[in-house]
Write a structure and sequence with these properties.
By secondary structure, the protein is mostly helical. Helix content is 72%, strand content 0%.
Length: 167
């Protein structure tokens, strides 16, 4: 009798496994398609992340002006001498104080730059960029932007010829 029960149990187990396999086939198919969809989505996410990482570089290159004078500041090749600062200031018709304000530095800095023999040592990249920008400006650009100080015409301290004779 025990062998009959064992045989019956094994047959029931075999039939139940067979029925379970039949029931699981559609679920396995759905699972396989979902796995392939998940793999595709992961690939898409990876490509989108790569594009997102590259986007700031593309924006920076699109916003950057064409390579010319401004590219020299980034590569550290821009330099100016003390005499160059002085000539630049005179060309623009600026006082040392006005030039300092335009370059966003202090007045003593401009005085030191102008008194420097040879190349001026400038540590800040922002100051280098500002000086390079100023170098590209013209007097009319300063007037148009309103950065040129509105100077009042100075009164002559000398008396006119007619007034000298009357005195």
């Amino acid at each position: 009798m025990s062998t009959l029960i064992k045989e019956l149990k094994t047959e029931i187990a075999r039939l139940s496994r067979k029925e379970i396999r039949k029931a699981l086939v559609p679920i396995q198919r759905v699972n396989a398609t979902q796995r392939s969809l998940i793999a595709d989505l992961r690939r898409q996410v990876a490509t989108l992340e790569k594009q997102l990482k590259a986007l700031p570089k593309q924006v920076a290159s699109a916003d950057a002006p064409p390579k010319g004078k401004s590219a020299a500041v980034d590569s550290g090749r821009f330099w100016i001498t003390g005499k160059g600062v002085y000539k630049l200031r005179l060309r623009l018709g600026l006082t040392q104080a006005a030039f300092a304000k335009l370059a966003e530095v202090s007045l003593p800095t401009v005085v030191k730059w102008e008194s420097t023999k040879g190349k001026v040592a400038i540590r800040r990249k922002a100051t280098l960029a500002k000086l390079q920008e100023i170098r590209g400006m013209k007097k009319r650009d300063l007037k148009a932007s309103g950065k040129l100080p509105a100077g009042k015409p100075r009164k002559s301290r000398r008396k006119a010829k007619g007034e000298q004779a009357a005195s």
